Amino acid sequence: MKKVISLVLAIVLLMFSQAAFAQSAQPSSKEEAVYGLLSAEGKPESVYVVNMLTGGGDLTDYGDYTAVENLTDASPLTQTDGKVTLQTSAKRFYYQGTLANAQLPWTVKIAYTLDGQPVSAEDLAGKSGSLTLRLTVAQNPDAKATFFLNDALQITVTLDPALCDDIQADQATVAEAAGKKQLSFTVLPGQGADVTVSAAVHDFAMDSITLAGVRMNLDAQSAAITKLTAQLTDAVASLDDGAGQLQTG
């Protein structure tokens, strides 16, 4: 049976706020996680928000949603002109809202080659050969810059060693997870990424690629350390290049 390739991406942006969202005597705090499902080439297909409201009682929240769904209990949700109202006894209430025309902070592009020839993700399922996956991340000019400038991005590519040999990924942190190779790349706030993964594959299939954005709060000292660390990394790379040139020379 032909294997189906799984290359849907999930981008998770964690955001927290302490604004009042309750009409009861006790103000409610709110936490939300924004999820974007992308195609195998990186094009956004749907974006939705999972909201968590605390306190219970008569609650009011706001969002430009095309649809809302209760994830906690059978309490009805009322949505009118961007306002969501509900009544619940749950101290932590979760609901999901599908966003209309939302823009993610990053643009993602993924290209695949098999034996040196461009190939679509759909055509990779069950194939064998020399695979190269290139993932490029950049700032989305149509979205607010806040998240791009303040959130670090964790990129995770998971490959099955039973289907992939000679896995190569420069600058990746490699770990074993449930019998699979997990390649992780960290992108600092305000920066893009150009990630390449290569492997010799057979009967190819893979899990979803994930990108997780998490807010980083750096004080002046931490920012200085980060800058020095980046300079050190560049210097080490230059030394490595120089050593390679010396060896080949």
Key traits:
249 residues; alpha+beta; 9-stranded mixed β-sheet; 5-stranded antiparallel β-sheet; disordered C terminus
Strand tally? 17
- Please give the order of strands in the largest beta sheet: 5-8-3-2-1-17-12-15-14
**N→C terminal distance:** 51 Å
Average pLDDT across residues? 80
Q: In DSSP terms, counting alpha (H) and pi (I) runs of 4 or more, how many helices?
A: 3
Oligomeric category: single chain
Q: What's the gyration radius in Å?
A: 22 Å
The share of residues in extended strands comes to over 45%
Helical content stands at 10-25%
| Backbone shape | elongated
Question: What structural class do helix, strand and pairing data support?
Answer: alpha+beta
Question: Could you give a short description of this structure?
Answer:
By secondary structure, the chain is an alpha+beta fold.
Q: What would your notes on this structure say?
A:
- With 249 residues, the protein is an alpha+beta fold.
- It is 15% helix and 49% strand.
- The protein contains 3 helices and 17 strands.
- It has helices at residues 121-124, 146-150, 220-248; strands at residues 9-17, 30-38, 44-54, 57-62, 65-70, 78-80, 83-88, 92-99, 106-114, 117-118, 129-139, 151-159, 164-168, 173-177, 180-187, 193-201, 210-215.
- A 9-stranded mixed β-sheet has the order 5-8-3-2-1-17-12-15-14.
- The longest helix is centred in the C-terminal third of the chain and has 29 residues, at 220-248.
- The protein is elongated and about 60 Å long.
- It starts with 8 loop residues before the first strand and ends with a helix.
